[in-house]
Design a protein that fits this description.
There is one protein chain. The longest helix has 24 residues, at 55-78. By secondary structure, the protein is α/β, with parallel strands linked by helices. The chain has a single domain, classed as TIM Barrel (Alpha-Beta Barrel). It has helices at residues 13-16, 18-31, 45-50, 55-78, 118-132, 148-161, 185-193, 211-219, 250-264, 277-293; strands at residues 35-37, 90-95, 139-145, 167-171, 198-204, 226-229, 235-237, 242-244, 268-269. It is globular. Helix 4 (55-78) packs across helix 5.
Length: 294
C-alpha cells in the first residue's frame, strides 16, 4: 500500500485505488460541489518515482485522473434527481506549484522560499499540463501558488504552448495582504486581471480568518470571478507528522465567515485541506439560501 503519507499525497491513489478516487468525486458532487478537482495535485515525475512509478506510467496515471473525474461526473449527472437545482459540475485539472514536485521543498511546500527561472517553471508545469488535458478537463486549476513570478511564467506558458486552455490560479497566503512569498495580493490580482486565459483567480489553503481581507483586496482591482477555499484552520507539523488545531473552527467559517466572503465579492467558495463533504454540504446550503433570497 502507498498511503496518504506518500510524497505524492492523494495522487498516489491513482495507482493504489482508482475506484476510491472516482467514488470520492461522486461523494463531493452529491454533497453539493459544482467543481471537482482531479487527483493530480503533487503529481510529478519526481513524486511518482519515489513510489516506484516510471515517467511513462506516471504520465498515464495523470491522464487517467481526468478520465476518472469524467466517469464520476457522467454517473452523477445521469441520475435526474442529482440535476435538480444544480449546474453540471465542472472538472478542474489540479496542478501544484513548482515546490510541490521537488523533494527538497518537503515540509515547506507553500512558503514560497524558492526562486527559479521562467524556463524552469515552464518545464515543470508543461509535463503535467500535457497529461491532464488529454481527457479534456473543463479548466486547469493552478492551486496554492506561493509566488507571483511563477504565476507569470505559467501565463506565458499557456499563451505560448496551450492557447486554447482556460485556467484559474489561486495563491496560498499566510496572512491577509500578500501571498506566502510576500507578493502583494493586489499586485497578484492586477496581473491576473490582464490575462485572457485566466478566467478566474483567488486564494486557497489559507487560514480562514484571513479570507475576507484577501477577497476585499482582490475585488478592489478586478471584476473577474473570485475563488476562495481555505483550509480548516489547522496547521501541519512536518517534524512531528501531526495536525495542530487551528484558532478557528469549521463552524466559525460556516456561520460567521461565509456571509462575509459573499459580501466581500467571492464568486466561488469551497474547502481545502482538512475539510470534508459535510463542510461542502453546508456551503451548498448557504449558497442555495442566498440565491433564493436574491
Amino acid at each position: 500500500m502507498i498511503g496518504l503519507k506518500s510524497y505524492c499525497w492523494g495522487a498516489a491513489f491513482l495507482k493504489e485505488d482508482p475506484a476510491l478516487v472516482q467514488s470520492n468525486h461522486h461523494d463531493y458532487m452529491k454533497a453539493g460541489a459544482d467543481i471537482i478537482t482531479t487527483s493530480t495535485f503533487k503529481a510529478s515525475v519526481n513524486g511518482f518515482a519515489e513510489i516506484g512509478v516510471d515517467e511513462k506510467e506516471a504520465f498515464d496515471l495523470c491522464v487517467k485522473s481526468t478520465r476518472l473525474a469524467h466517469q464520476a461526473r457522467d454517473e452523477f449527472w445521469a441520475n435526474e434527481e442529482n440535476r435538480k437545482g444544480r449546474v453540471r459540475p465542472f472538472i478542474a485539472a489540479s496542478l501544484s506549484p513548482y515546490c510541490g514536485g521537488h523533494r527538497r521543498h518537503a515540509g515547506k511546500i507553500y512558503n514560497g522560499n524558492y526562486q527559479e527561472t521562467d524556463q524552469e517553471y515552464k518545464d515543470y508545469h508543461r509535463w503535467l499540463i500535457k497529461a491532464v488535458i488529454q481527457e479534456k478537463p473543463d479548466i486547469l486549476a493552478f492551486e496554492a501558488m506561493p509566488r507571483l513570478d511563477e504565476a507569470r511564467a505559467i501565463c506565458q506558458l499557456l499563451e505560448e504552448e496551450f492557447p486554447d486552455q482556460l485556467a484559474y490560479i489561486c495563491f496560498v497566503c499566510l496572512e491577509g495582504t500578500s501571498n506566502s512569498s510576500g507578493d502583494c495580493i493586489m499586485e497578484c490580482a492586477q496581473f491576473l486581471n490582464t490575462q485572457p486565459q485566466v478566467i478566474a483567480f483567488g486564494t486557497n489553503c489559507m487560514p480562514p480568518e484571513h479570507t475576507t481581507s484577501l477577497i476585499k483586496r482582490m475585488r478592489s482591482v478586478s471584476n473577474k470571478p473570485l475563488i476562495v477555499y481555505p483550509n480548516s484552520g489547522e496547521t501541519w507539523d512536518h517534524a512531528a507528522g501531526v495536525w495542530h488545531q487551528g484558532s478557528k473552527s469549521d463552524e466559525f467559517m460556516l456561520q460567521e465567515q461565509l456571509p462575509q466572503w459573499k459580501a466581500a465579492g467571492a464568486t466561488v467558495m469551497g474547502g481545502c485541506c482538512r475539510t470534508n463533504e459535510a463542510f461542502v454540504s453546508q456551503i451548498r446550503s448557504f449558497a442555495d439560501a442566498s440565491n433564493k433570497a436574491e
